[in-house]
## 1
Amino acid sequence: MIDSPNSPELTKLCDRLSMMTPAVDGDLVAANAWPEEKVRLCADGGVYRWFVSQESGGLGWSESEIARAYLQLSAACLTTTFILTQQVSALRRVAGTQNEHLRSNLLPKLVSGESIATVAISHLTTSRRHVGKPVLQANRADGGFIIDGYSPWCTGGCGADWLVMGAEQENGEQILFAADKNLAGITIQPGHQLMGLTASQTGAIHCDQVFIEEKFVISGPKPAVLTSGKGGGTGGLQTSTLAIGLATAAIEFIRNESERREDLAQTHQAFREQLSTLKHNLLELASGADPQTLGCSAQEVRASANSFVLRATQAALVAAKGGGYVQGHPVERWCREAMFFLVWSCPQPVLNSNLCEFAGIVD
Ligand SMILES: Cc1cc2nc3c(=O)[nH]c(=O)nc-3n(C[C@H](O)[C@H](O)[C@H](O)COP(=O)(O)OP(=O)(O)OC[C@H]3O[C@@H](n4cnc5c(N)ncnc54)[C@H](O)[C@@H]3O)c2cc1C
């Protein structure tokens, strides 16, 4: 059981994940690969307990302890860590519900890792918001809701027992609910072939007249159902943490190379200094520091982390030269994985900041 971010057991888990990494890069294995063993290793290490309070059967880690653990995990294997964040987002939604049925029956199984849940909720916030009609609709029925339509994105539906999903009523109010993935009318589409992280098995979920009993409603109906409760920090520090974790792996690669190549020493030193500042700001904010006193907000950390992970992975490619461009080299995978932060849970100000940097616009 991993009971602290300083635990040697966490280091051991990261070492194992890191050694297994090439096997979960979907471009190199069958497209339907799902990193079952890696997910199981995390569950066996009790990782789901970190995120839930002691009275709910967890370890109640603080946000900064979680950030420190995520930094290590994402440097070891971004795919597994990303999958974990989606499972944890579902777990936290269930942990935050007032619904006693779910709290008593589902939550203990999710906390222990006996059952796994994942989320399909981004169509309520960041995906398909410009289309006129909700892509996943909820209609009141006797004793619950009928759900129709689709959720465009769900990571690891194939490896989950439960789906935490959101749907919208005609009046604009939304519900969040837990659905057994084997419910009649639910179809989990095969994962897309992605630029990176293909083994996360991310695809759409279709719902055809799925009946959700009232006792499986986590929250709602109400406007903007995701703004209440804790879901793992959409657009928040968690995404920055994973970006910084991945950048750390690339910087470590440059460090190794710089031991034999003096020309890389200055580059390595510059990245180390930026890494230290970014990590400091991230962990301060995770500990509840006032952004104004710190001189840096969560969104600024996110914009910097996006830029940093792209630059660090590409610098690693420069260091690795042609060999790093060959499929199967960790650096080419890191470069592809770094692009994910440009599309994952990106609020508009972060998008703007990235676009200004790419377009060379200085303000
Ligand atoms: C690998 C991966 C894993 C993910 N996993 C999950 C998950 O597990 N759970 C989950 O809930 N979400 C998940 N997401 C969703 C993610 O959090 C974002 O919601 C998603 O990336 C937003 O992209 P989109 O293409 O759906 O955006 P959209 O806004 O729907 O854009 C789609 C297209 O619509 C057009 N468009 C966009 N905006 C406008 C506009 N204003 N006017 C006209 N046209 C427009 C553009 O052509 C764009 O390409 C995942 C995403 C990825 C890439």
Note: Residues 86, 118-122, 126-128, 130, 152-155, 194, 197, 202, 343-345 surround flavin-adenine dinucleotide (CB under 6 Å).
## 2
Amino acid sequence: MSDSIQQHIGALGIVDVHEHHLPEITSCRQVNLLQLFQQSYAGWTQARPYPLPSESRAGDPMLAAAGPTTWEALAPYLENSGSSTFVRNLVRGVTELYGQGGVLTRGNWEALDAAVREHHGRPGWCGEVLRRAGIERVITDSYSDPLLDALEAFGNNYNSVLRINAFACGWHPESRDHNENSAHALLARLGCKPESFDDYLAALEKLVDSLASRHQVALKNALAYDRDLSFDEPDEPSARRAWGQVSPSPAERKAFGDLVVDRLCRLAGERDVPVQMHLGTALIRGSHPLNAAGLVERHPRTRFLLMHLAYPWSRELLAMAFVYRNIWLDLTWSLLLSPSHFKLALHEAIELLPDESRLMIGGDNWHVEETYATMRLARRLIGEVLAEKIADGYFGLDDARRLAGKILKENAAAFFGLSR
Ligand SMILES: [Zn+2]
């Protein structure tokens, strides 16, 4: 029975609802083995790519140029952080794609590095890897350019989402979000040059109305990397006081961001555009999912796709998804943080969620090798959970098959209107 559900899942196509495929990284033709580690979650074991409030940084270490691959450069990942799922997942993916028997050692790294460089030099290699992973469609959050038309950049099986962080930090032309994006620079590309706070609010409407022209299918709120997720009821006088200041007070910044996020969620609801939101980890003192409950509650017409099982607060998130029926769950990344917790949480999600439309999956990766590995892992873990459910007599093989098809593909296609 467990072979049967695993085989079924192995053959399903995937609509991947979240990647960070960026043209300058993912489509780069000069990629080596070290880059795959640096520009992946394995890289996060060495350097967290976002600063805490107490820290500063010169630039995003993931986007920095990588040097040539050496054993000395690989060893910190493999020998110091070799127990991390991030590292295990990438090693498995790279060795499956390029041979070398499932291990990466001092004895075979040069052969693997040569294979990575040779394959990335071939046009069409990235597409081939996605095909081998069974991925039919990709929705990417290309945060280095929130206005990216991914269909133009990557091909017609891609869409992008619009990351809204810069707009929630756009009180001054010089203000930037943690990705160094400026709202004013982005709006200038749409022909908007807001001179007042009211101009700025009007420009937000134009921003949302122009999504489809760039094949963008959702808004993405990744503000958990910039601030806390307590998006309170808009306080317009305080938000207006932030406008035009280089350095507004913390309360004015928060009010500005609260109002912009609230406005964007309302505009999205009116246009039936989904809103993805990062929950959990990040600036961890403020990323608890219940902080975002007020926002979800104020916008019952807005469809929220809440991400990462809000790790480590998956039970709180599942309870929210039971109470608020405008919540869907993107399981992305939670399986890479902890496969063991993912399985436990997926069991509970299956039992608790009000209907079968709520779960979707993504890779959340920069290079296709990691995407390939993550989707292999996702298929295996989902298959194991469904096999356990069948073995327990919770439901039958037909139920498990139906649910697997929905999690991997059908829910995402319907949620994002991809067949329209
Ligand atoms: Zn992500």
Note: The mean pLDDT is 96.
## 3
Amino acid sequence: MYGYSGKILHIDLNEQKHWAEEKPEEWYKIYIGGVSMASRLCWENIEVGCGPYDPGNPICFANGIFAGTPVPVGGKYGLASKSPLTGVLGDSLSGSWFSIALKRARWDGVVIHGASDKWIHILIDDDRVEFLPADELLGLGTHETEEKIREIFGDDQVRSATIGPAGENMVRYANVTNDGRQAGRTGHGAVWASKKIKAVSVRGTYGVTVADPDTLLKMSFDITEVAQGPHTAKYRIYGTSTNVLNANKHGFLPTNNFQEGTFDFAELVSGEYLDEHHKVKVIACAQCPIACEQMSMVKKGPYAGSMTGIEYECLQAVSSNCGIGDMTAAIRMVDISDRSGMDTMSMGVSISFAMESFEKGVLKKEDFKCKKYPEGFEPYFGNAEAGVTLAEMIRDKEGIGALLAEGTRIASQTLDQERNAETYKWAMNIKGLECPGYDARSLKTFAMGLAVGTRGGCHNRSAAYDPDIKGETNRFTVDETRGEVAARSEEYAAVYDTLPMCKFIRRCFTGKADRAGAWPTIAELINATTGWNFDYDDVDLIGVRAHTIKKAFNIREGWKQEDDDIPYRWKHDPMTRGPGAGHVVTDEELEYMKQLYYKAKGWTEEGLIPKDLLIELGMDDVAEQIGV
Ligand code: SF4
């Protein structure tokens, strides 16, 4: 087979053994790679009904079809497990040299079963697997862990995915880091810690064989040239943080825990401000000619020395969303999160949840006692030092940080039970995953897209904010088109997440980002890599199948229609200022749009998947188990 090895590596931590599983080419044509293949591996290998921290919850890696080839932005892998935050499928992506090393080691995917008694570091050295003690890595930050591993092996070609101290402490939204990039959201780092895995390293020494190297090389060079031109200038110059001012102008910039959508100090936490005052260089994921990550540093003041990559989602979560208009504090908070291996979006929303709980009197100053402030402190919105201190407390699970490390859903349930409070009214999560940086009260298609998302509150998987923001839909109203719009936009995103390719390349094929502009070129890239004969429709089906296997997983784990919901605030509390003022998404509107969406997907009114649809997609065994 070209482009693939045809083999999945299984590692059993209980017995410390490993074996190879061969997969037929047809299986690859259905699941391709990235989040789709990783989700399928979860489907095949999980003990149905097990808890996220049970040994029966496997860690599933799936490589990208273009990893290790010259195809730009194709050096990514997918990672999936049952999520400790949502209790259903958690799927993530990371751009990384790890994926290239894995491809060179000739593994299309890796499934890690069971759990270890002692902290370990797994080395995949081509066909060999070693279970190494992790003692000298424990306590190290994410970047330090990778450096230490390279030092131990004395080999720059060893590439690692690691967890940091937040993962070791089982912060429920801990992530997995490689080359300074994260497989973020949904808490993979905590699942790794439940198995006592500190790091997985790979050394691959084989080549990558593709069907038509000349065509693949020429196409890759052409796309790379375009990718360094005007279509990606926004990402290269300012990075996604330039979205802060745009979101503020349109009134959906999360502010003070999503109470409002406009922030008075937006200029001070904008991509433009970052560029002028803090940017030191731009960096790129492996195999990427765009380079959108703005490495930013604090040069003076109490947070001097903090340095990390900043992008929109992490920036808004710790700045406007916490009322913090101090870029130095925002960089410090992201730095704490990145070095300790936490998902900054979930961390930021957990902190803003605590701030609102304090301002509403549910939490008191004495709840915030810690080593740094033995008498406690007052985390009102805009208190930058409180934001920084809470990030440290969450990382260390110190004091109230231990509760916030559980994420907003569990923190809210706990407070409401113990203090007879109503914090659920401002716990901003969907299925347990903290909401992204778009206030959806005035982005109604997106609100429904988030509600039905298999991963919870995630802008990367839904993408329905795009038609709302571009004005292709009226973002303040609902109508009969919304089911179709949300269904097709999530499938569009799923194509990129499955290859996987970074979506920022989407205008670089023909200048148009839509299906017609991108799918024919993607089909040609797939064919030159694999020797297959994919066309437009086959590419389109990649997204449909990816989304279907994720939904099927959730159904088998007990998904219910009422799980497709949005936070209380978006249904009941209108904003008071900006273009989004006065708008909410009512229960009636949400239910109406959900029905339109289920219909657009070809599902039943209950949101279940008909057997014949699954069989049509080539998922006969899935049809057997969950089809109706
Ligand atoms: S554009 Fe940015 S996120 Fe996308 S692959 Fe390149 S560096 Fe990574």
Note: Residues 118 and 196 are 6 Å apart (CA to CA).
## 4
Amino acid sequence: MPDELHTTVAERLRGVGQRYTSQRRALVELLAETRHPLSIPDVLVLDGELAQSSVYRNLAVLTQAGAVHRVVTTDDFARYELAEDLTHHHHHLICSACGGVEDYTASPQLERTVARAITEVSTATGFTPEHHRLDLIGICAACA
Ligand SMILES: [Zn+2]
Ligand SMILES: [Zn+2]
Ligand SMILES: [Zn+2]
């Protein structure tokens, strides 16, 4: 676990007037270790010492601080992961049948294709993009 990650998360929490409590640290460590978007039930299974109400509240605070990203899914279970600038740029494959969420890292070639498409949108609209999120919603291989 790199100390740099904790230093950055602590700074972001300070920015929104929050402290880096031991519970928040435990959540960040869990998300860093699993390297996979987790739902709150996933978190409760992986760390039996955390209480549901505090997990919900602490993830909301970490999301507000910009340390955690909430993946928007089609089911009731939101998924959480470390913010992309703390890990690496990637996309999501969201299954609307089982609610599963998989990370997908695109090839540099595919990212260049996306960048070209974004330039087209930017030229047409005058909107200045800073980064992008591209999540696919559909049916996963297991459910197909
Ligand atoms: Zn599925
Ligand atoms: Zn992800
Ligand atoms: Zn991308």
Note: The mean pLDDT is 93.
